[in-house]
Amino acid sequence: MLRTRSRWIAAPLAAAALTLSYAGYQAAAAEPAPAGAAARSAHAPVPADAADAADAPVPCLADSTTLIGDLDGDGHPDRITNPGHTGTEMTIQWGTADGTFGEKTAVRDLLGAKKGEDATAAVADFDNDGTLDMVVNIVEPSGGDDPSTARLAEYRPGPLNRTDLGSADAVHSDIGDLGEVRQLSIARYNDDAYPDLAVLNNAGDGQMDRDVRLSQPGGGLGDFDREAKQKYGEYGTWAEPPAMPADGWQHFYNTCS
Ligand SMILES: [Ca+2]
Ligand SMILES: [Ca+2]
């Protein structure tokens, strides 16, 4: 009797162990497995969402300025660092199959920014499809009262090309049409699941504004919207620029466990 019962129990446990070992592999690829997780798994029932572990790894925060998530779509999480939340000094370390990260590469170099040009970027899953996306802007500041317009300003849905951060579905963004982008930052301006964008914009003649671009539930970022600017933006000066959000990622991503 006891042996019969054991067999009944053993079969599902073996299946569970297989599923969990694959899930464990996925977790290990994303980050160091939490201590004791494997031991607990052996006795715990298969979680209802175990199948989700086979999907793309969910982005998470290593710290407030470091996002771990897959940017090039190879299934291995990459390390995106954004010092000061400004979008001007962003670096990427491509993830490898063994869960480690390659050497740091400056986003401005990947984008091909030239000497004298400012490159600014923001990373989040703007269309909430599970793949990280990027907004990029390259501008050569005019140095005078009248701002110059961007040489390149695009919304780039992921996955992105490793060599130049290109996207097959890139579209022009108007963030660089109305001034010189000084900073880009992720924000949560309305309460939907789609990250929004804050733009520190040199509008010329001593004016420095915080512009906003709201993500569209259908995908992509909206264009300039006067109503959104009145509601979420702010007018400032070169001497006293408006504050930029520093907690955007934290609204959408949990700390890596
Ligand atoms: Ca990757
Ligand atoms: Ca996306």
From TrEMBL:
Protein keywords: Signal
Pfam families to which the protein is assigned, alphabetical: FG-GAP_3 (PF13517)
Signal peptide range in chain numbering: 1-23
Superkingdom of the source species: Bacteria
Protein known as: VCBS repeat-containing protein
